[in-house]
Write a structure and sequence with these properties.
- The protein is α/β, with parallel strands linked by helices.
- The chain has a single domain, classed as Rossmann fold, CATH 3.40.50.
- Helices cover 35% and strands 21% of the residues.
- The protein is built from seven helices and eight strands.
- Strands 1-2-4-3-5-6-7-8 form an eight-stranded mixed beta sheet, with helices on both faces.
- The relative contact order is 0.13.
- The N terminus is likely disordered.
Length: 203
């Protein structure tokens, strides 16, 4: 019984130590809130970006699973979003208060800032993990960014048709991609990724 009590205290301490709220500054000056789950600053990072209307709280449980595989995690509040799992999107709130744009595409600045932060900290390229509109942004950003080595994308789509088509942006994409989606979404995603070589994509 005493052993279990001590073990529980150690686990509580570990969890508290493993999660830290940090602030990153985007190029346009917006302060971005993120939760850092770090096991060793020298290990590579997986950067997690939420779906539309959500916050970094989307990944409360996911991060605990990922760090068991030896990756640090950074779950980021993008400027386009809201509350999920009782965690408010602080970046989105601040963006509205300060008059920053909060459309999907403007969140690209937040993703780029997170990439720079993680690369400077670990000196290693990162893996991007996105959902919904952020998954599409991750794919577009990853193509020509040397600090990104792979992308995990859940339900990406053509969210930016007024500006560009993701499908066209992915021509000559050279990095590993893992895509997950519902059966209903699958035909659209297969088409969107049709110009990416089969050897580097898993759908």
């Amino acid at each position: 019984m005493r052993f279990l009590f001590i073990l529980s205290l150690l686990l509580i301490s570990w969890n508290l130590h493993s999660q830290e709220k940090i602030i990153i500054t985007a190029d346009d000056g917006l302060l971005i809130t993120a939760d850092l789950y770090e096991i060793d600053a020298k290990k590579p990072y997986i950067l997690l970006f939420h779906q539309a209307g959500f916050s970094r709280g989307e990944y409360k449980e996911t991060t605990q699973k990922i760090i068991k595989f030896g990756y640090n995690c950074l779950a980021v509040d993008l400027r386009s979003g809201g509350e999920v799992n009782y965690i408010q999107n602080n970046t989105a709130l601040l963006a509205v208060q300060k008059g920053f744009p909060t459309d999907y595409l403007s969140s690209e600045k937040d993703i780029l800032a997170a990439i720079r932060w993680a690369k400077e900290r670990s000196k290693k390229p990162v893996i991007l993990f996105g959902s919904s509109f952020s998954a599409s942004l991750c794919l577009v950003i990853a193509k020509d960014n040397p600090d990104v080595k792979a992308v995990i994308a859940f339900s990406p789509g053509e969210f930016f048709t007024d500006q560009f088509f993701v499908k066209e942006k992915l021509v000559d994409f050279q990095k590993p991609i893992f895509i997950a989606s519902s059966k209903r979404e699958n035909p659209f995603i297969v088409d969107m990724l049709s110009l990416v070589h089969p050897s580097i994509k898993t759908i």
